[in-house]
Every structure is written in structure tokens, then in C-alpha cells.
Amino acid sequence: MPDAFADPRFPMPEFESGHTQPETQLPLPRGLLLEFMDVIVLIITLSIVTWFVHKKRSRKGVFWVSIFSILYFGFYREGCVCSIGSIQNIALALFNSSYNIPITVIAFFIIPLIYTLFFGRTFCAGVCPLGAIQDIFVLNPLSLKSWTQTLLGLIPFIYLGLSILYAATGTDFIICRYDPFIGLFRLDATFTMFAIGAVFLSTSVFIARPYCRFFCPYGVLLNLISRFSKKHVTITPTHCIQCRLCENSCPFGAIEKPTPLKSMNNRASQTKRFIVLSLLIPLLMFVGGWTGAQFHENLAMVNSKVSLAKELLSEKDIENSEELSEEIKAFKTSGKSIEQVYVEAASIIDDFYIGGWILGIFIGLVFGLTLAKLSVFQFRTDYTPNKGICLSCARCYDYCPVTEDNEFVKFHAKPLNRKE
Known about the structure:
Layout: H1 30-56, H2 59-76, H3 86-95, H4 103-119, H5 122-126, H6 129-135, H7 146-152, H8 155-168, H9 174-177, H10 182-186, H11 191-204, H12 210-214, H13 217-226, E1 255-256, H14 261-265, H15 267-294, H16 296-300, H17 304-314, H18 326-334, H19 338-373, E2 384-385, H20 407-412
Helix pairs in contact: 1-2, 1-4, 2-6, 3-4, 3-8, 4-13, 8-13, 8-19, 15-19, 17-19
């Protein structure tokens, strides 16, 4: 076999303008080293913030970790690699065997989930730069009604389903494209994205962490896994004395109050309603799947190949027309035939038809379970954080007068008599 690397494949061009060819050298693997360094920093930061939350019970420590995350993962690393955006890489790798997903992306996807399974949502507490930059703007948060939080809480599930659908079909990474803060970190966003980011940050003053609570698709996974966490945030280190000082301390509405006695008396009616709503879940799933399938062509239009095929169908004479879009001009120079474009577009539309069914079934299931959950009775005697939506921010710690070594409070304080 001849030595193909002995001589240059093409002769070096000769320049008459005095230009000299610069010396080249093999590129150093700096990018890969930086990616692995990011993983190491992620693990260290997660470990530190988890220590502050569970061992030191320090809100101040969590705050300073948040500042570091904004500076490092946000402005220095410019929001990439991002655990939130890694959802799309995982989806694309699962449905496209030709896509080689970097190991660091897998690490950024899995590591926060592992920590969440053991310690709750400490990643949200101070490691995620998107959450951290919103958190420092929480100045005068308003308390939202429970039904409002429940309704807005459905949006991340829809966003998650759409992002997986578009990534799996190779259409787009919509999480990254519409990330409201990545443009702020990189200082290169369009005016529209700068405005959206500014709206989220200004809204954070009155509605704490709006993106984290009502848009973040990765938060859906963290929410579900955190419910099974082995060790989670507790408002008090020992026994709750029901002093009610923590009642309004959480700006995210994650503190669940003791169950009123009147709720215990309605258990029979709540059980019947739960059974009825549970029986409606299969119907909601079918209706959701059928609806998603009806809109599959509209969803597919985001795909560049599908939109090109539609444009070619509507363009009568692409050979002689002088006013052609950039997409058609690129197509004319690609060497592909129109028939090839139509075949590829038809295949993608078929994928969206299947994906529309799956997306609709998923959304129907979420709606059904949400309705059924409203009828689930949970008896509570103390103030406890909701393991799913609690962001482990440690704010409630400063409101609790009970300490591990405060024996008087622990054994002699009397609970406050409450009138519900």
C-alpha cells in the first residue's frame, strides 16, 4: 500500500502578494481537557452545595456557591455544557445511531440526577447557572395560589415532550435555541432573546425563579427523581414545634402545611373522586395522542427539509425564477433531486406522526395524573417541604428557631394552637 501521507495531496498554492504560509502544528486537546475539567468542577460544586444544605444548613453558603456557578458555568463557560440542554443530546443519540454523543454531555446529564436521587434538588439550589442568576433577583416574591402553580407546572412537561420530539427527529435543539439566559452569558444574543432574558430576570423579583418552576424541562426529571431521594431537606433539624415562622418563608411555594381536620373528614368523597379521575386517564391519553397526531404536519414544518419540500412544491419554476429563497438556492447547488427531498420530507413527516401520538399520550397522562393527584389525601402533622418542587435553597432554615443543640425548644416548647 503506498504511503498516502508522504506527500501533500494538493500542491501548496503560490501567492504573489507576499503572503507566507503560517506554520501549523497539531492542535492541543485543550477543548477535551476543559470539558473533563467542567465535569470535575460540577462534581465538586455539587458536593459543596450538598454539604452546605444537609450538614451546615447554611443559606449563606448556598448563596456563595450560586455566585461561583454564575461566574464559572455561566459567564466563563458561557452556559455550555449545560445539563438542561443535554436532554436533547441524549434524545438524539437514542434515536440516531450515527450521532456520537460526547461522554462529558452524558456526565452532565446523569450526575445531577444521581445527586438528586440521594440528596434532593441540590443541583437547583446553587449549581445550575440558569437558576442561580434568577435566584439573586428574588427580592420581594409573591405567593401564588396552589391552582396557579399546578396549572403553570404543566408547561415544563409539554416543553420536555416537544424538545425530545424535535431532537429525536434531528429537527432542532429548541431548549438551547430559546434559552433566555445563554445570550446574557455570552453577550451575543439577539435583541429579542435579550428582552426575553430581561423579562425573566425582572419577573424573578416578584415571582421567584419563573423559568425553573414553570419552563425548565430538566426540572421535570429532577422533580420526579427527588420524590424518591434518600435524604432530603428538612425545615427543622429536630422536631417541628409548629411555630409557623417558616410558613411563608419559601418563595417557591414548596412548604406543605399540616393537614386540617376537616380534610380528614372528606376522605371518602376524595377517594371516590380519585377513582373516577383515574378511570379517565386512559381516555385523556387517547385524546391527547389523537390530537398530537392531527397536528404532526404542523409540528414537522419546523424541520428544514420539510419546509424546503413545501417551498419546492409551491415554487412553479425554480430554474428560471429570479427571486428564490436562500434555502432553494442552497438546494440547487447541493446536487440533490427534488424527488430525494420529497422522499426525505415524507419520512420525517411519518416520524412526526408517530412522535405526535407519543407526545399527545404523554401530555394526556400528565394531565390525568395531575387531576387525580388533586384528590389524593396526605395526612401531615408538621410543616414539611414538598420533595418534588423543593429546590433545596435553604431559605427556610433561617426562619426555624429550632436547633440541634437547643434542648429547651426541642423538649419544652408547646405547639401553637391553630384555627383552620
